[in-house]
Design goal:
154 residues; mainly alpha; Four Helix Bundle (Hemerythrin (Met), subunit A)
């Protein structure tokens, strides 16, 4: 059973690397023209589509990082009934520096997925914060990869 979970973890990390590449692509496409103080009405359809793709990829990537953390906790037979238990365990394993930081980025992700009715100034600030926290998600994946390589080598 544990072997199957470890195999699933390695597969999940391979998927996450592909997702990272997709998120990087969206991030790199946006950054040359992004300005937090620019009016959304000034952006063309391609730019708006790039923002929508970025937002979706950011949210999906964070969701899969979370499920990977839960998978590790399951492998280690930790209590996963509350996700805060999982996050606390990730801090203990030095995968995350702090549970609060993860939750803060999670709140940004949740707010961004429901920002369609917000004024454009609020949406722009949300996108800006998501862009600023993209590297945090990449660092989390790197930490998950280092832990997995050390704890469950192929």
């Amino acid at each position: 059973m544990k072997g199957n979970l470890i195999d699933a973890l390695h597969q999940k990390l391979t998927l996450l690397q592909k997702m990272r590449n997709h998120l990087t692509y969206s991030y790199d496409k946006i950054m040359p023209w992004w300005r937090v103080d620019e009016d959304f009405a000034q952006w063309n359809e391609e730019q708006l589509e790039s923002l929508a793709a970025f937002k979706g990829r950011f949210a999906e990537f964070q969701d899969h990082l979370a499920s990977t953390m839960k998978l590790i906790a399951n492998i280690e037979q930790e209590d996963t009934r509350q996700f805060t238990y999982v996050l606390n365990y990730m801090v203990q394993l030095h995968i995350l520096d702090s549970m609060d930081e993860w939750l803060s980025v999670r709140n940004l992700r949740n707010a961004a997925t429901h920002d369609y009715s917000e004024p454009e100034e609020v949406k722009a600030k949300h996108f800006h914060k998501l862009l600023q926290h993209t590297q945090y998600l990449f660092e989390t994946l790197d930490s998950l990869g280092r832990f997995t390589t050390s704890a469950y080598p192929n």
